[in-house]
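Hello forum,

I keep getting stuck at the same step: I have a sequence, I want structure tokens, and every attempt I make locally crashes halfway through. Rather than fight my setup again tonight, could one of you with a working pipeline run this one for me? It's a single chain of 295 residues.
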Amino acid sequence: MSGRPNEQQEEDSDLIANKIRKAVNLAGPYFDWRAKQEAKGNRLNVLNHSKWLFERYQFFKDKFIEQKAEAERRSAELRQEKDSSDLQSLLRALNSGVLELASETDWIGQAAVDAFFSWSEHAFIHVAILRGRIENGYQVAELAAANWKEKFRAALDLDDPCFKGHYDKLLLLRVQMRNFMAHGAFGKRGEAFSFHSDAGAIPVLLAESGTNRYSFSGAPAFDEVEAIRNIDSFLYDFWSSELSPVRSHLFSTVPSILTFVADSTYSKAMRSDEAMSEFVEYLENQMDAAANMEW
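Reply #2:
Ran it on my machine without issues. Output:
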């Protein structure tokens, strides 16, 4: 059939489209019920975006280190010029772009920290699955909606002194980032007001919790260099621990398959790095073969 549709054909098309829309609306509650029933079981695959999210962290971290070194190099050059006034030094700093570079370096460092927490919230869900601690869609959904603390505890053991130490440091960093980035960005310590005293302006901090919302003292401001150092220290210990087999899975494109929790497949793969690596390779080959069949 060629050419423009006639009036009758347009009417028929509208009638068919309306019937399809009505059928979809009527079927909606059934499919919602069906999805809910499926979520109760373990015939589900949990998509794995850990590799992409970690590469985002790595990108910002490398960029931060690179720009931090350049900013320090330029600052050192300016400090070597001692035969000028403070005003001249400030003008040279402005003209050289040192202050702008320092600000951009801080922004990149903060983006790296934020990227790490984004990765860890996703990765911890997969680690909990691989360890058999969650095994159905309901549990995955509940953990996905939970806060970072609960995800950490679901994936890792706080009775391990090493992980407990990292948990305390990372949790403090998480709070510092949340205070600064999510609550108006008044300051890295929550400086929202200045109290005018006889001694001068004194910052008033917004407290994270508690009955008293205001304070003159609080947790120290987060430092981007120290933050990334703590993150990398955690990652080193994580990859070096008995949980090291999860790395092969996290840095693959293979989803977490909940049926493998129930039939102990994951518990067997978690016995060694080699076992997990071989299992992931097998699944990747299966996925490639299935994709080729589609063509």
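DSSP finds twelve helices and five strands in the chain. If your local run keeps crashing, start a new thread with the error log.
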